[in-house]
Design goal:
2 copies of one chain form a homodimer. Helices cover about 25% and strands about 30% of the residues of chain A. Chain A is built from 16 helices and 40 strands. In chain A, strands 31, 34, 35, 36, 37, 38, 39 and 40 form an 8-stranded mixed β-sheet that branches. In chain A, about 55% of the residues are buried. The interface between A and B is large, with 150 and 150 residues.
Chain lengths: ~650, ~650
């Protein structure tokens, strides 16, 4: 274990930032001149002054007639004044005619005011008759005249240093004759992914390897931050190779990010590489879960971050630690550092991590009583936790847990919360997937497969609009309805029948006909996740088989019982690849993968729908599709599926 | 007036949208395949499925030792189990060793689980001793093992059609082996600016012309909207020329925007051009101020918008009408159409526009009691209304006014509100500008010149942190303090002395020595905006002079009295350019422009500061600088300025 290194004192991200500030000046890296049109989104490094007066000359703000106001003082609605029309001033040209006593000149919006005139009468209050104009309303001196420089004066400051250039500001500066602006230079950030296991996305898959997601994740996030990513590719887990790559990064970039290789298990490769620089490692380890194995180092004035390799861990430390640093180097307004937050009700209890601040990715749904946060499960290697989350909840270091129903603060991954129209959290089903794909043409859908029981709970807690469930109740020997009786605020909508049984290899080589065979022959199974409707069936089948054999749970090891697939497809794939001899699942996926199927029983797959969501457009669309002839036909075409007479109908409504 | 055309029935932007929907299918224009990394921010046109299982193999989620869980069942903290270390599995490689009874294998985070093992013991609970490992904790079956496909399964849908590709999603899809994605094509939007008066920004100024701000404004806004701008340049006000340009736009783009030339005063040029297409003009005129002269037309399935030329009017109709259309053509989530809104307290009364929905640009400031909205003044040609505003308030068609103190809803120009650190609204002063420029190194500053009285009101209403004021009180023959006595929540901070007088041409050709000369000689003056401290002085000087001459207001016309410059510089420039013979202003700007100056009196320029803002960092920095030796020195160097013994000190605190 000599290669493994104990972490120095772990610090919070805020403490890490202070340490960095003590070594490095976190200020804009420089200034560059840009043509105005290229500068949208950039931050001004100087006060910008108007180059010309705006407007550059006295002009009319309306269509009408330029007059001497004093000539109109007696004009009234029923007693107009008559003025002589002596000409017209063209927009964009010098006025070639003046306005004398009793005269007027036609002007369009934006046209120069001719000499002698001091007001404009709107066309609505005038009537042209040959070379005369009747004026039906008295004009005030200066009325509808915009004086030269009255909006902005040559030399006047229009935008101050530190301001981000919005489209509106770009437009205003263009009008004021500004051609170029000085803005802060964008920091160049080198990204080096380390790990012998890494494959570049886009290349064909090679066994025992994983795709490098971090480079994509971070370079996409950098673009949002007004930084330039410098993708340096994948580097082997080799001290010399990483050192060379970091050296190159330091030459070509302002900040270097190294992902992976930070854990003690890698012999703390990155730590050792980075500690060679001067001043070397500043921070080693964060009080964060995920995100602990983070290294901050510096070479002279340039920062090097070693971020954990798992995408979620990498992204969390990037968000909490690297982003604030880069924002300051980019000269972005301090406000950028305050990440957008929303308050939400927690749908499911989350545990803390003693000694660490725990970061829990959540998805959000807007219910009747506000936002509800649902923790997206999985380990720190999980990509679902990234792809299905809107932000994260921070559980402070000292807190043991946060209970469901408590209000939490959710830090959003981006400023704008773009919630889907329909959130479905529940049991996985290929027929449901087909239905949602069709619904996706009209509504934005989000679907998370977590099993029946968790789905039911998500709907009750307000985290989902609907859940597919297939929960067997032994006492009543029926599906789903008994589970609805004890809950509130939910509606049960009739789904369809799915044939369930044992999925075995083609030709059924072990000649399996029941769960009893599986136990007796000590075959390897693949299980389903806890809380799934199928898991309940698996446990019932094993329990029944044990009873038949006169055995009890624990008397015998069932190989593969802990191998929990998340979906029916997962079960079929495990059997297809020979990782398991048998699994419990639906006939449809067995056929899909060309496997054999031993029928056990029909199950009923229904939908729990949030009562408060029944009048949402997306939910109505969902129910319409469920009830449609198109869907009945689809079910009858899918092997192992059957519609029911009342498919798509509400069969139970709980109390509020 | 024959060329002028009466507007068809005016409609609201919402009605206009309905009309458009009845003619054109507002749906995505097409689909394109992109490499994953190029697709950030784009909208998925298909459901995206995992290409490989994630993780692709059973792997360890921690650094530790792969074991058979059953071998560890008796392990305890003070009574470890000893296992034989039979090897190590490298990350990224096939496991070359299996785990038998009583054996273990070293694994790092992410390494494959070797055959035979079904759990991992974390390194923290193990101790290596030669070829043995002591295990101090019992492992559960499956502990710290992430099973192949447990996160995502090959073929499983990871993101649904209509989803915007965030960095997190890009990362997740990369991990799942996705190489390319189908996204909706970005609409190409042609921008044609019409008007003989238009000059391209960047070119040298030509008299009687204005810079084309609309093209810059709209093309910058299009980029934010996932649309591609096609800049087609400036077109003369000529029916044939515009027609040709629109034809080209229709060939090369999906939507054509024509700015300018929509007002009746232009002979409704754009209306006439667009009505030739089939089906031609769909909407002519919006119930909007600004924004009325808007034309919507179509040629086949392609939309053509004629937008008013004044930048603010152009931007408002773009925001309310064009943006929602483009968002749908781009396939952006429906949520994009809901513009971000905030609630704020209105600082100053705003009037409605009978028969129109009025749009009033406002700046926002966050005070103790929430956001305060301050209407930025000016006409619809004003660029300040664009550059200094954060969003706008809509005054409904039927409403006569909204009073100060009422709560209003502000539609933000963008999702993220980036408020400045310090908001100064008040009287213009070159010394203040120099001070704020220096302060801009540390804080984001916004400064709006509206005059002393409006500035005082803005501070009281919570719309500004501070205001420079120089308000003379005749009764007490003193500056500023008397005005503070009747207000609440404000602090008066001592500023400095400015020498005031008449600004006249070099050599004083009209031999002006007093305002009486101006009136007697019927000279042309330039005035200052109402509510400015100088305007009060102007009116007092004229009043005194009239009394001396035995005259009253209205007895005599004072040429140029209605020509209201917004700043001292404006006064000086008007004199410099011969637009006026005389104006009232400070010595500093007279000297700056090489003009002559007739001293009248010293004035005291102080600062009103919001009491609640006194502990804001930016305000403290402002006051520190005001009190600094640097600033005293600056004042003593500026002609016509003088510091006071108590410059920078609080001289009065009002009640709360």
């Amino acid at each position: 274990m000599g290669r493994r290194r104990i972490y120095h004192r772990l610090v919070t991200p805020e403490e890490a930032l202070k340490v960095i500030e003590n070594h490095i000046r976190l200020a804009p890296l420089g200034v560059e001149s840009l043509k105005l049109r290229e500068a949208v989104g950039r931050v001004l490094a100087e006060d910008v002054r108007a180059v010309i007066d705006v407007p550059p000359f006295d002009r009319s703000t309306v269509d009408g007639y330029a007059v001497r106001a004093e000539d109109t003082y007696v004009a009234e609605e029923y007693s107009p004044v008559t003025l002589r029309l002596v000409g017209r001033v063209e927009v964009g040209e010098a006025p070639r005619v003046g306005v004398g006593r009793g005269e007027c000149v036609e002007v369009a919006t934006g046209a120069p005011i001719p000499p002698g005139a001091n007001a404009v009468v709107m066309v609505e209050y005038a009537e042209e008759a040959g070379d005369k104009v009747l004026i039906y309303r008295k004009a005030r001196v200066g009325e509808h005249v915009s004086h030269a420089g009255s909006d902005a004066l040559r030399g006047e400051i229009l935008a101050w240093r530190g301001t981000r250039l919005t489209p509106e500001l770009i437009g205003a500066l263009a009008a004021a004759g500004v051609k170029e602006v000085k803005v802060y230079r964008q920091p160049v950030v080198a990204i080096i992914a380390t790990g012998n296991e890494l494959l570049e996305p886009g290349r064909n898959y090679v066994e025992w390897r994983i795709y490098d997601a971090d480079t994509y994740l971070i370079s996409a996030a950098l673009a949002e931050l007004s930084c330039k990513p410098l993708v340096m590719g994948i580097c082997r887990d080799d001290e010399e190779a990483i050192r060379e790559r970091v050296d190159e990064g330091l030459r070509r970039a302002d900040v270097v990010l190294v992902t992976g290789g930070t854990s003690a298990g890698m012999g703390d490769l990155v730590y050792r590489v980075l500690d060679v620089y001067d001043p070397g490692v500043l921070v080693h380890g964060l009080k964060l879960r995920p995100g602990k194995p983070t290294v901050v180092a510096a070479s002279g004035e340039k920062l090097i971050f070693g971020l954990p390799g798992f995408p979620l861990s990498c992204y969390m430390t990037f968000t909490l630690l690297v982003k604030p640093v880069l924002a300051r180097l980019a000269g972005l307004p301090l406000k950028m550092l305050e990440r957008a937050r929303v308050r939400a009700t927690l749908a499911v209890r989350i545990a803390g991590a003693p000694g660490y601040r725990r970061l829990v990715p959540v998805l959000l749904r807007l219910g009747r009583r506000g936002l509800v946060a649902y923790p997206v499960g999985g380990d720190s290697g999980s990509i679902h936790r990234l792809s299905a989350s809107d932000g994260f909840v921070e559980v402070p270091e000292g807190l043991e847990q946060v209970l469901e129903g408590e209000e939490v603060e959710v830090t959003l991954f981006r400023d704008r919360l773009e919630l889907p129209d329909l959130t479905v959290i529940g049991s996985h089903c290929p027929a449901l997937e087909k239905l949602l794909t069709r619904l996706g043409a009209r509504y934005r859908v989000r679907c998370l497969n977590v099993g029946s029981l968790a789905g039911l709970r998500a709907v009750i807690a307000g985290a989902a609009d609907a859940a597919g469930i297939h929960l067997y109740d032994e006492r009543e020997d029926t599906y789903n309805l008994p589970y609805l009786r004890s809950v509130r605020g939910a509606v049960l909508v009739r789904g369809y029948v799915r044939r369930q049984g044992l999925i075995v290899a083609r030709g059924n080589p072990h000649n399996i006909s029941s769960m009893r065979d599986v136990i007796e022959k000590r075959l390897r199974m693949v299980n389903r996740v806890k809380g799934s409707g199928t898991r309940a069936l698996v446990d019932k089948l094993i329990g029944d088989a044990l009873r038949e054999l006169g055995l009890e749970w624990g008397d015998v090891e069932i190989p593969g019982y802990s191998f929990e697939a998340r979906t029916h497809n997962g079960v079929a794939l495990a059997v297809l690849r020979g990782l398991a001899d048998v699994g419990v699942g639906i006939e449809y996926v067995a056929r899909l993968y060309g496997l054999d199927f031993v029928y056990i029983k029909d199950e009923v797959y229904d939908f729990v729908v949030s009562k408060e969501a029944m009048d949402k457009e997306s939910v109505k669309g969902f129910l319409r599709l469920l009830h449609s002839q198109w869907f009945r036909h689809l079910l009858s075409e899918m092997p192992g599926y059957e519609p029911l007479p009342d498919t798509g109908q509400v069969i139970y409504v709980s109390d509020d």
